[in-house]
Write a structure and sequence with these properties.
five-stranded mixed β-sheet; about 425 residues; 24 strands; four-stranded antiparallel β-sheet; alpha+beta; disordered N terminus
């Protein structure tokens, strides 16, 4: 962002004061590790995670608490109800109003008012100035906002009555916008639930609601159509192949360069070839790992939610390679449709065994072994029926995808409207007399 753009973030037609004259700035700290008595006490302890998971603008409880002994060991101060808390590390500038007395860790600042003011107004000012705060972040290994840079930021400073009028107005207007956003997000969630239920039913019961059923023999799968079978995936594979991950450059390969896929290439329903890293010239590509059209790719290492994500490669440019966090399923096409297999493995029943048998100490990175994949049970309708089911579900996904896109666009516009409204109000572009909460 240019210097002119930064200046545009600052109010011009109302009084301004630097933050250091309006707030005391407290840097947080963490009690020494390995001391259990410092934790789970009566003092709320704010971290950037609390700000990142915040539903709203106020903090009335925190993920962790510390004891009085832990608080004293930090050598820092707490802040009273009505103070502000702001993250100084990525994502820099997340802000909230404290509705409890609290301390914080080294990833946050506590801003304690030096005089009587409306904390809601200054909360909105800092929301407006967040792009500037992000620019002010410095560092080599990670970005951090310094106390001096924060204290030097100019804030609008109307009189207290105007502060309250603006805050009341923004509370009402942003509340209306937030309610609309929440409703549209609820619609998105319901749409996803409906789609997931439809997919699960189609890949386990078929499309005919009147088809005779029989027990599958698997509790998690339930009844299936009487003319279907249930078989291990390994009987439908030529082989299961794991790729290769050399040290790569951390940017996507050009079309004429060799690239190694990242696990994110299969996170969504559609294969994403842009999720790759450039293979350095010093490395020779292992061409047996080159991706081909009609490959079925599966993530073998990912978060629990994305572990086992699978995608069918429809079309792909040359010179993309399979990485070691992906499996390639070489499907025997005689009795199994690749499209049907992908749809089943992305359904809730298809993911059941992966989630049950995932290994790994970290919740952020789980693994599934080749034997787990080979031994997964799959329902096997006649191949022509598999293809009909897959095509029907493709049509359904396209239709719901259009609705999702429209809802997401509407949400984006509402959020832009909210941001613009806050900016206009705190920078004096809306006359206080024109604000009616």
């Amino acid at each position: 962002m240019s210097e002119a753009s930064v200046s545009a973030l600052l109010p011009t037609n109302i009084n301004r004061r630097r933050l250091r004259f309006l707030f005391g700035t407290i840097s947080g700290a963490t009690p020494p590790s390995g001391t259990p008595e410092y934790w789970d006490g009566d003092i709320w302890w704010v971290t950037p995670e609390d700000l990142g998971n915040l539903d709203g603008r106020e903090i009335s409880s925190t993920r962790r608490t510390i004891s009085l002994e832990g608080y004293k060991s930090c050598g820092t101060n707490s802040a009273k109800n009505g103070s502000l808390v702001l993250s100084k590390r990525a994502p820099i500038g997340q802000t909230a109003i404290l509705r409890v007395d609290a301390a914080c860790n080294q990833g946050c600042f506590l801003l304690t008012p030096n005089e009587t003011s409306d904390e809601r107004f200054f909360y909105y000012c800092l929301v407006h100035l967040r792009p500037l705060l992000e620019i002010l972040g410095r560092g080599s290994t990670f970005m951090e906002l310094s106390a001096d840079d924060l204290r030097s930021v100019n804030l609008p400073y109307p009189d207290r009555k105007v502060q309250t009028r603006i805050a009341d107005y923004l509370d009402a207007e942003t509340g209306r916008i937030d309610a609309l956003v929440a409703e549209k997000e609820r619609m998105l969630a319901l749409l996803e639930e409906k789609r997931a239920a439809l997919i699960s039913r189609a890949v386990t019961r078929g499309l005919d609601p009147n088809v005779p059923l029989k027990p599958s023999g698997l509790d998690w799968l339930g009844d299936i159509p009487a003319h279907w079978t249930v078989e291990r995936l390994k009987f439908h594979l030529h082989r299961l192949e794991q790729g290769w991950s050399p040290q790569c450059d951390n940017y996507p390969a050009a079309d004429d360069e060799w690239g190694v896929l990242k696990v994110g290439a299969v996170n969504s329903w559609e294969f994403n070839p842009r999720e790759n890293k450039t293979l350095p010239d010093s490395e020779s590509p292992i061409q047996q790992y080159e991706i081909r059209p009609r490959d079925v790719l599966m993530s073998r290492a990912n978060t629990k939610e994305l572990l086992g994500s699978v995608a069918l490669v429809e079309d792909v440019r040359p010179r993309l390679l399979l990485c070691d966090k992906l499996y390639r399923l070489d499907v025997i096409d005689d009795r199994l449709s690749r499209r049907f297999l992908v749809v089943f493995l992305r359904s809730k029943p298809g993911r059941y065994l992966f989630e049950q048998e995932a290994t790994g100490a970290s919740g952020s990175m789980q693994n599934i072994g080749q034997d787990t994949v080979r031994n997964v049970w799959i329902p096997v309708p006649p191949k022509s029926e598999q293809q009909t089911i897959a095509l029907a579900l493709d049509r359904e996904r396209r239709q719901t995808g259009e609705i999702e896109a429209a809802l997401n666009e509407s949400i984006s516009l509402l959020k832009e409207r909210r941001s613009a409204l806050i900016t206009a109000a705190v920078t004096g572009q809306i006359e206080p007399e024109a604000m009616r909460a």
